[in-house]
Amino acid sequence: MVLTRDFKETVKERAARDPAFAKAMLDEATTAFLNGEPQVARLILRDLVNASVGFEDLATQTKKPSKSLHRMLSENGNPSMDNLAAIFGAVRKHLGVSFEARAAGQV
Fold first, then answer.
1. pLDDT top residue among 8 and 23
2. How far is residue 61's CA from residue 53's CA, in Å, rounded to a whole number?
3. Which of 10, 90, 97, 99 is nearest to 54 (CA)?
4. Which of 7, 35, 38, 49 has the most crowded Cβ, counting Cβ within 10 A?
5. pLDDT of residue 7
6. What's the pLDDT band for 67 if we cut at 50, 70, 90?
7. In this predicted structure, what is the pLDDT of residue 3?
8. What is the chain written as a DSSP string?
9. Does residue 18 have a pLDDT over 70?
10. Is the separation of the CB atoms in 81 and 99 below 8 Å?
């Protein structure tokens, strides 16, 4: 029998050791959210939180219970805009990333 690694564990380890990969995950989550794919954004964010800031530290930063954050970032989660902004903000801060919005076609 061939031993295989769990995909989520592989992603978590890569994001934890490779800051560029973690930042790319944050970019993908942001892009998915802005393109009307909130379920995809939540799942990417969940994996990124697990790999970076962690749910306990995220709970402290957002002043939300860890269990609630897990539910918000689940497949069927439904975080409010305020909660989603707080989660994006905490992950962004942890990764040292800033966001800049531009209209399509602008460089």
1. 23
2. 10
3. 90
4. 49
5. 82
6. very high
7. 56
8. ------HHHHHHHHHHH-HHHHHHHHHHHHHHHHTT-HHHHHHHHHHHHHHTT-HHHHHHHHTS-HHHHHHHTSTT----HHHHHHHHHHHHHHHT-------TT--
9. yes
10. no
The residue type found at 60 is: T
Q: Centre a 10 Å sphere on the Cβ of residue 84 and count the other Cβ atoms it contains.
A: 19
User: What does the block give as tokens for 12?
Assistant: 């978590």
For residues 68 and 48, what is the distance between their CA atoms, to the nearest angstrom? 17
2: confidence class by pLDDT, cuts 50, 70, 90 = low
Q: How far, in Å, CA of 64 to CA of 10, rounded?
A: 28
State in Å, rounded, how far the first CA of the chain is from the last one: 51
